[in-house]
Every structure is written in structure tokens, then in C-alpha cells.
Amino acid sequence: MVVEHSAHRKGHARRRGVALLALTATAALALSACSGGGAASSADNGGDDELTVWFPGSNPVEIELVTKSIVPAFEEETGVDVNVTYLDYSDLSTKLNAAFAGGTAPDVFGHGPAAVADFVINDRVEPLDDYVDKLSADDQDDLAAALTGGQVDGVQYLMPLSLQGVLLVYSKADFAAAGLDPENPPTTWEEVHDAAEKLTVRDGAGTITRSGLLLPSQPVGRQQAFTTLLYSAGGSLISEDGTKSEFDSKAGIEALEYYVSTYNGDDAVSSSLGANYIDSPTAQQPLALGTASITALSAQAASQLQKTFPDKEFGVMTPPGFDGSDGYAVGGAGAGLMINADSAKKDLAWKFIQYMISPETVTAYTEGIGTVPMRASAAESSYVKSSPVIQAWLENSEQLRANPNVPGWVQVRDTIDKYLEQALNKTLSPAEALDQMSVAVDSILAQNK
């Protein structure tokens, strides 16, 4: 899905709108095949007072806020026309690769931090250190916690817009009804599964009608769910030097067997394998519908859930570990914005990014979509202090670990995802999936050294 917002000026007249566009599928082009400066340029992206920006994601609340409030305010203040396109994460890399190859890449584009190294090694993004250095010392201090998430080898390339992470959110009413203490949720994955068995509801034929535990099982979500379990079993995805996979291990087996068991077997506690509940509208979230008691959610989704259903009580778990291991969850610096290295409007592009990360705008952005602020000063804001959900994410921020930021990451992620899908569908055993996955991932990492 692509959502495009265009704002064009003709004299004093301004036309704004949001349109859903169906784009023809484009064959994925490896970034490595597009290395070097290339012909991509923003010369085709309009005049000096026009800017093209691609945002990642498909959340309707964010799209409306950015396209109908934040961008129009920037246009009004600067006189610049901004053409905004929102792209699903599943399409984003393919569309960007095709745009770079065709010379139509946007001036500014967004992605998750783990994809930045790929763009850097292929000279696709502009270093931002000179721009960041011009910010005031107070501004830099306020942004410090988030900035490292957008760096490669100590150089700033991406400006995160928020902090993110996926934690377990649960229905306190379901816990109480099942005889569980809603104020003292499980602290280990073994305890989570025990609780989930008590929370799972089946019909007369044994079909699960309410999942006790629901972990993401859709593309991209699979990798994040497995990685959370892997980290919490004491394992790691990739070596520190980024040259070899490390998930084909005892911790990897424990993590993947646990993940598979939630959807398969006599003690399964999850239904709807492959369904993308993560991106469902708030009213269609399993916790809202009563079709799940514990789900993995982002801070943004959890905030919207609590806001939409103020009469329902939801709890947020501290990331559980496996017995004897510390618990972690995938998270850290959220998606952010980068400047196309071939853009002819780099200063204007930075002006837009600086506007997006300004205290006023980033507060409106994070509060509007219900996510975790990336400025340290926001911890004292009424938004954070009035939101138990956001406070929970901040309290657990030290247990959020990012995906590896290594060249070839998007391809690595998609490869991991492919084998996880086969394991979840019992096409491969967990051991077979990890073995074949490691061979494939090591090959990708070797090609991107």
C-alpha cells in the first residue's frame, strides 16, 4: 500500500490531499548492484521550493497526523511544497532500490535503523554530522540517547523520530478471570506459557477461540518475535564484527522451539498463524476483540488501544527471560529520516528533518501517534507523566536491543523470515531451519563485507 500526500502551490492557491495509489510491483534490485553515486538525483523532483519525502509505515493515525497537520504547518512556515509518500515496510526497500536505479529517489526517505548500513556502504545517504554539529549543545544533549541509533561507524546518517520497542501487553480482566494475579505478571517465558495455557479458550472441537499468547507471525514480525526470544535465551543474531551468524546455537534452538510450540502441538496457545494483527486497526486488535489475552505490541499500538478503550485495563510486562537469562525485547531508536546523497536540495532536506525533530513537532508527533519520545526532556512532559503505557516503555528502555546494523541487513532479515515461516508451518524442524538459515545468512554477510 502506498499513501501519497501532495501539496502543490500555484500563486496563493494550495491543493492538498491524500490518495491511495496502487503501484505496479517492481522487481527487487540489490543495493550492491547500485553502488556508487549513480544517476539518482532530485533534479526530477521539482523546483527549488519543492521536496519529496518517503516515510515508512502504514499506520493510519500517523499518516493523517503527518500529512494533514505536520507537513502543512511546515509548508506554511517555509513556503516549500512537500510531496509525502508512505510505504509499507514490506515494499519499502524494493521501491527505494528501484527509485535509486531509475534516478527518481526522494530527497528525504525513512527506514528503520538496521537498514542504514546498507545505504551507507552503497553511498546512498548523506552524512549528517555537519548538520548535527550546528545544533545547540542543549539540543544535542537532548537528542543524545536517540542519535546513536542512527549512526554507522560513529557517523550520523539517520535522525530517529522516536524510540520504539515491542513488549508483551495483557488483559488484566482475563488474568483475573483465569485466577492469575494481574498486578504480578510472569517474569520468564516459561511462566508466560504456563499463564497462556490457563488463558487459552477452545471450542468443543478444540479450536482456539482466544489465544492465551499471540506473538507476531507475519513477514518481518516473525524475525522480531524470534529475535526477542533469542536475545532472552542469551543468544545473538550476528557476531559483533558483522561477519557471521550466531543464532544456530543452543539459545537459538530454545527460542525457535518455544516460538513454534505456541502455534503447534497439543499445548499450542496461539491461533491465526500468519495473520498480521500488528497492523490491524485499534478496534480490530485481538486484545480489543477478546480473541487474545497476551499480545506483543509496540508502544504506539498499546497507547492507541488504551486511549480507544479507557474502560479496559491493560498491563505491560517487563521483558521476560528464559529461566536463568535476562529478558530483552527488540527495540531502541525507531525509524527515522535520511537525506539522499544525490539530492540537489540537501540543505532544504535538512531543514525538513530539523523541523521534524524540533521539540514542538516531535512532541506533537510522538503524542499524536502514542509512541515513545526520542528527546530526553520529554520524560518530564505531561504526555509521558499521564501515560502509564509510555512510562512502562521508558522504564524498560535498557532491556530494548536493536537489530544488527550491518550491510545486507534487509536481505538477512528477509532470509531469516523465510526459514522461520517454514519452521512455524512445520515444513522444517527448528534445528533444520536454523542450520539452513545460518548457511544462507553467512553467504549474504560474506558478500557484503
Topology readout:
Blueprint: E1 2-10, E2 13-21, E3 50-56, H1 60-78, E4 81-87, H2 89-102, E5 108-111, H3 116-121, H4 129-133, H5 137-147, E6 151-152, E7 155-156, E8 159-160, E9 163-171, H6 172-177, H7 189-199, E10 201-202, E11 208-210, H8 221-232, H9 250-263, H10 286-289, E12 294-298, H11 299-308, E13 314-316, E14 329-333, E15 336-339, H12 346-356, H13 359-369, H14 382-385, H15 388-395, E16 400-401, H16 409-424, H17 430-447
Parallel strand pairs: 3-4, 3-5, 14-16
Antiparallel strand pairs: 1-2, 1-4, 5-15, 6-7, 8-15, 9-12, 9-13, 9-14, 10-11
Care to describe what's here?
By secondary structure, this protein is of the alpha+beta class. It folds into two domains: 2-162 and 334-374, Periplasmic binding protein-like II (D-Maltodextrin-Binding Protein, domain 2, 3-Layer(aba) Sandwich); 165-332 and 404-447, D-Maltodextrin-Binding Protein, domain 2. It is built from 17 helices and 16 strands. Helix 1 runs antiparallel to helix 13 (359-369), helix 8 (221-232) packs across helix 16 (409-424) and helix 16 (409-424) packs antiparallel against helix 17. The longest helix is centred in the N-terminal third of the chain and has 19 residues, at 60-78. Residues 5-43 have low confidence and may be disordered.
Number of structural domains: 2
Give the strand line-up of the largest sheet.
Answer: 2-1-4-3-5-15-8
Counted beta strands: 16
Write down the Rg: 22 Å
Oligomer: single chain
Summarize the amount of helix as a percent range: 40-55%
Q: Please tell me the overall pLDDT.
A: 88
Structure annotation, total helices: 17
Question: What proportion strand?
Answer: 15-25%
The rough form would be described as globular
Please identify, by name, the CATH architecture of the largest domain. 3-Layer(aba) Sandwich
Would you tell me which CATH topology of the largest domain applies? Answer: D-Maltodextrin-Binding Protein, domain 2
Q: Main beta sheet: strand number and arrangement?
A: 7 strands, mixed
Spans of 5+ residues with little confidence (pLDDT < 50)?
Answer: 5-43
Distance between the amino and carboxyl termini: 33 Å
